[in-house]
C-alpha cells in the first residue's frame, strides 16, 4: 500500500509540470483562465513550493480546491504559514490563505466550479466515480473528503 501511495504522489507531481511550464513560457494569460500558480512556504523545509490549482474568483477573493483533501502538501503548508504568493494570468500578488473544511462551503465551491467549468469539473467528478452533474447530496459526499482555501489578496 505504501508503494501505491508513493506512486500516486509522483503522478500528482508530474501533473504540476505542464501548467508551470505554460506560465514559464508566457502562456499565463491563456492558461490563467482556469489555473493559477500558488506559492506556499514548505512547512518542513521553509522553501517556496509552487502548485498549479484550478480556481474561482468571487468578490475579489480567490478560492482554490484540493482534490486530495487535507493530505495535499500545499494545503498543509498554508495551515503552517498562511502567507502565499499567487500568479494568475499576468498578475502576481501576495495574499493570506484561509483553510475551509466545512462540507457545505466546499460543496458550494464545487457547485460554482461546475457551473463555470462544466466540462473540466464533469471530467474530474467522473474520475472520482460521480456523475458529470452530481446532485447536492452527491457533492456534499464528495466534499466531505476535500478542502478549499480562500486567498485574500494583500494590498
Written account of the structure:
This protein has 155 residues and is α+β, with helices and mostly antiparallel strands. The chain has one domain (2-153): Pnp Oxidase, Chain A (Roll). Helices cover 43% and strands 30% of the residues. The chain is built from 7 helices and 6 strands; from the N terminus they run αααβββαββαααβ. It has helices at 2-15, 17-24, 28-31, 73-80, 103-116, 118-127, 136-143; strands at residues 35-41, 48-58, 61-66, 83-88, 91-100, 147-153. A 6-stranded antiparallel barrel has the order 1-2-3-6-5-4.
Task: Give a concise summary.
By secondary structure, the chain is an alpha+beta fold. The chain contains seven helices and six strands, in the order H-H-H-E-E-E-H-E-E-H-H-H-E.
How do the strands of the widest beta sheet line up side by side? 1-2-3-6-5-4
CATH homologous superfamily placement: Electron Transport, Fmn-binding Protein, Chain A
Radius of gyration: 15 Å
CATH topology: Pnp Oxidase, Chain A
Q: What structural keywords apply?
A:
alpha+beta; Pnp Oxidase, Chain A; six-stranded antiparallel β-barrel
Please write out the topology.
Elements: H1 2-15, H2 17-24, H3 28-31, E1 35-41, E2 48-58, E3 61-66, H4 73-80, E4 83-88, E5 91-100, H5 103-116, H6 118-127, H7 136-143, E6 147-153
Helix pairs in contact: 5-6, 5-7
Amino acid at each position: 500500500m505504501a508503494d501505491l501511495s508513493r506512486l500516486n504522489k509522483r503522478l500528482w507531481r508530474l501533473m504540476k509540470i505542464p501548467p508551470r511550464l505554460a506560465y514559464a513560457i508566457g502562456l499565463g494569460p491563456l492558461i490563467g483562465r482556469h489555473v493559477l500558480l500558488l506559492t506556499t512556504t514548505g512547512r518542513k523545509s521553509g522553501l517556496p513550493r509552487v502548485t498549479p490549482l484550478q480556481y474561482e474568483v468571487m468578490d475579489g477573493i480567490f478560492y482554490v480546491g484540493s482534490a486530495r483533501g487535507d493530505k495535499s502538501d500545499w494545503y498543509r503548508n498554508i495551515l503552517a504559514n498562511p502567507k502565499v504568493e499567487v500568479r494568475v494570468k499576468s498578475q502576481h500578488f501576495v495574499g493570506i490563505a484561509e483553510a475551509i473544511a466545512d462540507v457545505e462551503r466546499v460543496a458550494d465551491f464545487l457547485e460554482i466550479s461546475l457551473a463555470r467549468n462544466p466540462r473540466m469539473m464533469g471530467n474530474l467528478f467522473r474520475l472520482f466515480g460521480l456523475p458529470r452533474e452530481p446532485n447536492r447530496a452527491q457533492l456534499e459526499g464528495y466534499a466531505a473528503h476535500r478542502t478549499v482555501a480562500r486567498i485574500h489578496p494583500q494590498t
